[in-house]
Design goal:
With 77 residues, the chain is an all-beta fold. 0% of the residues lie in helices and 70% in strands. It has no helices and nine strands. The strands form two sheets. A five-stranded mixed β-sheet has the order 2-1-9-8-5, with no helix packed on it. A four-stranded antiparallel β-sheet has the order 4-3-6-7, with no helix packed on it. A hairpin with a 2-residue loop joins β6 and β7. The mean pLDDT is 97.
Amino acid sequence: MTLDIISPEKIIYAGKADSVTLPGLLGEFTILDRHAPIISALGEGTLRYSHESKETSLPVRGGFVEAKRNIVTVCVE
């Protein structure tokens, strides 16, 4: 799937991902390839994404995520 992580200041990541784990307001959740469409607010925590067995972590203070048609867009603070 395609993953775009953006902040008000810059594009943090734009590329492929096998999974994305996000800090939702009601708990952590993971988006995988061909996930059903979703829009969700994010809370404070750690965003993790992996591609080709390499996992990257990013602390976030909040934001939102939209996933549809195998494109995941994350806006973070």
